[in-house]
Amino acid sequence: MNASAELLKELRIDRSAAPPPRGPSPSRRWLWVVIGLVLVLLAALAVGMLARGKPAATVETAPVVAMSQGGGSNAVLDASGYVVARRMATVSAKITGKVREVMIEEGMRVEEGQVMATLDPIDANAQRSLNAAQLDAARSQIGGLQAQLRQADAEATRLQALVSQQLVSRSQYDQAVAARDSLRAQLLTAQHNAKVAVDALAIADLGVDNNIVRAPFTGVVTAKAAQPGEIVSPLSAGGGFTRTGIGTIVDMDSLEVEVEVGEAFIGRVQPKMPVETVLNAYQDWKIPGEVIAIIPTADRGKATVKVRVALGVKDPRIVPEMGVRVSFLEKAAPADAQAPKGVRVPATAITQRDGKPVAFVLQADDKVQQQVLQVGEALNKDKQVLAGLSAGQTVVVNPPDTLKDGDKVALDGAQK
Question: Among 58, 67, 179, 233, who pairs with 96 as Cys (CB 3.0-4.6 Å)?
């Protein structure tokens, strides 16, 4: 009994002892670690934003260009137009016929008189053979009549001697003379017929030659319109089975530009005025030229006047129907004239700050520096700057109203 009581006492819990220390759970420790990392990242982001300041404005720029020296010119008007050819022909046969052979291809250069195509000459050859036979018949008839005339003339001469001796009657002599004169008339008619046959043969030769299509001038083939076996005609047959031409030839030496100038600005254009032409296909190629003529009529619907412009350069890259932009220039100054002062910049690069004209110059660190300007005259889309800028600098075009001196900018992606 005592032993059992002792055993029960040993199993009793001692509540007087202090409880063991309890640490934080693992999940709570990880939560505090994550919160700490987030706070560190937010602090770093705030510091970065404070260091960068406001975002850089995206701007467009343009170079500062020196004014043209002596002999230079300034554009007074711009216009758009197209390259045209003064000599261009769609070549066709003079007659209706079936194409036998075509000897041209697009882009091929042909000389004046060169054969471009031939037609089937079977009808023309038959007509020529007939006319040649008629000429031979007329000539053989002339030979027979000439022989008869010689005999009749000798007979009349002999009878004339006998009549004087009264050995033959006068009527016999008169019949011989009449026969001789009749043969003379027949011979004259035969000779005229032979001449007509010669002319008819020449016309037949032209008919044969009309089956050959030749180039009317030296140029380049821009279109091939017919194929062997097709029927061609100089006149439209009113259907889809007859061609009206063999091909189109353009004289590349006759290329020029035609532009349409608004009526309100045609007073700025004068004959022999220097121009500068830029092809839409070659934007960096400036072609010099001059005004040929101002067409003395206006387009009522468009309110424009057509102007012909000569190209100062002959080049294979210039082809008809190309789009162009033409700048009409002021008359060139003499070579010894004083060079104009200052530089020229786009007019949109000049803005107002505190009532003064200024421009923002781009620096090496992509920051802008505000420059107060002394502005000169307007030069079409540009402006003359007498002081404040120098050639070679880069200025901001269309600067935002919020742009200030020292601000950092970013270039437009199209200019990078």
Answer: 233
